[in-house]
Design goal:
The protein has 133 residues and is an alpha+beta fold. It has a single domain, classed as Aminopeptidase (3-Layer(aba) Sandwich), CATH 3.40.630. It contains five helices and six strands. Helix 1 crosses helix 2. It is globular, with a radius of gyration of 14 Å. It binds coenzyme A. The site of coenzyme A has 22 residues, from strand 3, helix 3 and helix 4.
């Protein structure tokens, strides 16, 4: 289980340029309380990557995708996203800043843009279970 302080630390120090979270502490508290998480840690317990999401029937909403800066470009975020896609039968949604290169990661996993809101894109993907039904 990822702790509140790990979330705060990751987003305060290595979140990148496109995360507009007004209050990271409040964000972390809420997502720990109501959200779910998948993550990768190394053998020493260092947090390498995580995805935080809400299971909002009928939609699974991805709130944050993060990879440690020293471990980016190795497929960690892609693997975690694929895990979620494989395990749910819900439509998966997320929002990403228009200029955030993270959108290319989502496109590779067949997320498609379904709308825009100011600087943000809404993207959506059907789960593998739905696609294979
Ligand atoms: C976005 C982020 C999670 C990507 O993590 P990552 O572990 O490096 O991504 P992966 O290595 O799994 O990338 C998977 C694919 O997405 C593509 N991709 C990922 N980041 C990319 C980038 N910055 N530019 C272009 N393509 C990118 C890769 O080309 C890769 O394709 P491939 O499988 O053909 O090689 C990471 O850069 C990050 O933590 N950014 C800061 C936080 C953030 O902005 N999160 C998104 C919030 S919506």
């Amino acid at each position: 289980m990822i702790s509140k302080s790990e979330i705060i630390d990751s987003l305060e120090n290595n979140g990148g340029d496109f995360l507009a979270i007004a209050n990271i502490e409040a964000y972390a508290e809420k997502v720990i309380k109501f959200g779910k998480q998948v993550y990768t840690i190394d053998e020493k317990g260092l947090l390498l990557a995580y995805i935080l999401f809400y299971d909002n029937n009928p939609v699974l909403y991805i709130s944050m995708v993060w990879t440690h800066p020293d471990f980016r470009g190795r497929g960690l975020a892609k693997n975690l996203l694929q895990q979620i896609i494989n395990q749910t039968d819900k439509v998966i949604q997320l929002e990403v800043h228009k200029k955030n290169p993270a959108k290319y990661l989502y496109e590779k996993l067949n997320f498609r843009c379904t709308g825009t809101n100011n600087e943000m894109l809404t993207m959506q993907c059907d789960s593998a279970k739905t696609l294979n039904a």
